[in-house]
Amino acid sequence: MIAQAKDHRSAEPARATIQFDTARATKGQRKEESHVNELVSDFGFLSVNATSRDFDGLAQDVFAQLILSPSTVVQLPMSDVDVLPSRPTVTSLLQYYIDHDLALYPFMSEAKIFGSVEALYEGYASPFDEWTVYMILATALASLSTSPEDGSYAEAVHYAGAVQKHAKMVLLPGSLQAIQMMLLLVQYSMQDPHHLDSWYLVGAAARMMVDLGLHQDPPTSVKMKDAQLDLRRRIFHSVYSFDRATTLVHQRSFSFTDDSTNVVLPKLSNAVFSNLAKSRNLSLEMIGLRQAASAPYQLLFRSGPDILQKPWPVICAAHQAFSEWESQLHQAKVQGPFKLSFRSEMLYTKILLLSPTRLKQQIEDYGQLRIFDHAVAYSRTLSALVNDRAKATICTSYDILRTIFVVQRLLEVCEQHAGICFGDCIPHPPHVSESKHSLPLLTARTGRERRSLAIEALQLLDGIVRILGKKYGISNAWRELEPRVHTMQTSLQDRAI
Question: With a threshold of 0.70, does the pTM exceed it?
């Protein structure tokens, strides 16, 4: 399902995409920094001068302001770190970040991170070093926080505010390091939507990535070291994964399409991760999940009306892609909170693909019950993650947005299709003559069983929103939905008596 990097210098590098029938300071730190510099200097056909054309004449501080102004919800308070935390404290937080965040998005190496820590404690840290360490500390602390009122969140905001003075020096056009610094901001914004809007930051990072040509593997005529090539691939796939996740949560357009990309998967090595086997599996499974979602979303949400007249071939291909991804997830032995997180995102995506605005009224009874079943599974999966405090730290603000959408679609099915939802009929899946695969049969359930499942799912979803809402805030959308949830719960309970 995922294209593995084989001969990265082949004339036609394999594309790491899902094919649908219906569409097409230490030694380690210095080494990585040299790769960043050489990537730009050696990549003759995409030089910094060429990529900076859109920002010609802009002062550094103006460019940084163009990035930060639209993405700022509430200004981060400017602050200074007068006293560094103890080394054991910093090491513990950095290891948490490496195990939970870098393992998914390996856009820099462990050596680079610990090299920046060494530079900070030894007194020769550059603005990039400070930005790296403080933003990682901020992200780790925000992840461990459970409320904007607790000490971890206050510390996170303090560290995030402390790097803002360096923005004009690290957020530079035509710079790979700037993309890495941007992605650190993206990760933090997903934990602190009170201050930063990840949508704008992801879009800016994607634009910078495309301007540098990272969305295409270089031709064989360009000589590049393996480590350099792997770094640019790691950065590309990190941007890709952030962009797909953000787009699907907000239901907007991709920053770049799959058809515009031609980049094989990074090899990843011990030079990137110390715990290579675990981290490599997590990173590649994350990429595979986002790839499986990308093509059908583009077709169903951003294509012409012809696709929506015959949506089932696309939905069937998506189901097959997710089935293959789940099989690979099992083979990779991904367990614990990451498995729950991946699975909940997959279930959300399956519901989303059955929910384009122009398609809602055309979805057959089979489709409505598929949404119902996915919503029940989603509620159980994410509840198991959110209600375990140790596991819940890997959640992001995207999880509450996904959950509110799932609640909305479950309510629509229960309210507008009560006859089929709570009746005893079990519709057969539509026949998809254009595909060699078939849609799965629905689980045989009685109407009474579905009423019990609906009550359970709404209760679990309500609990998820309450827990995540305490951390990330409750949206107006949920305030509008909440009375409907309680009304539906009461109605279903009365019928069950």
Answer: yes
